[in-house]
């Protein structure tokens, strides 16, 4: 048997913790889109069967170290376009964004009206209609125009772009801070 001092570092036997670290790096590579599911499955199987450090290193040779430099910002699945280039659920999210302030304001007005009407027993005059009606008509026209012109997809693309820019600035700041240390 060869002496421990005469062995190359890659010939040393790997432990369970080493295999777990490689499995974690492979999972991150899958999440980043560097590996497809089939490649990930094959490499993961090889990682848990690996005996030496060289066996483990071979699995990561074409995968860059995690956190090296500025990575492409991750986006949630909601803010990523589908295979057809369209953002899923963009219309539903755009409508919610458009109508949420109106619904909140009208809800508050109705609660105030109900509270004051109970005290004064004047249930006949529904004054929140003056808030809900005109604002609702304006929003309805904007909604119809936006839906007919494809505004929800443009809104989703702009939102994803802004989110990516914010993430890049955040990563640049954290990289700059780590370089200063």
Overall description:
The protein is an all-alpha fold. It folds into two domains: 4-60, no CATH class; 77-180, no CATH class. It contains six helices and no strands. The chain has helices at 16-32, 37-49, 53-60, 90-120, 129-149, 151-180. Helix 1 (16-32) runs antiparallel to helix 2 (37-49), helix 4 (90-120) packs antiparallel against helix 5 (129-149) and helix 4 (90-120) packs across helix 6. The chain is elongated, with a radius of gyration of 28 Å. The two termini are 45 Å apart. The relative contact order is 0.10. The model is unreliable at 68-75 (pLDDT under 50).
- Count of spatially separate domains: 2
Order of helix and strand elements from N to C terminus:
HHHHHH
Q: pLDDT average, as an integer?
A: 81
**Beta fraction:** under 5%
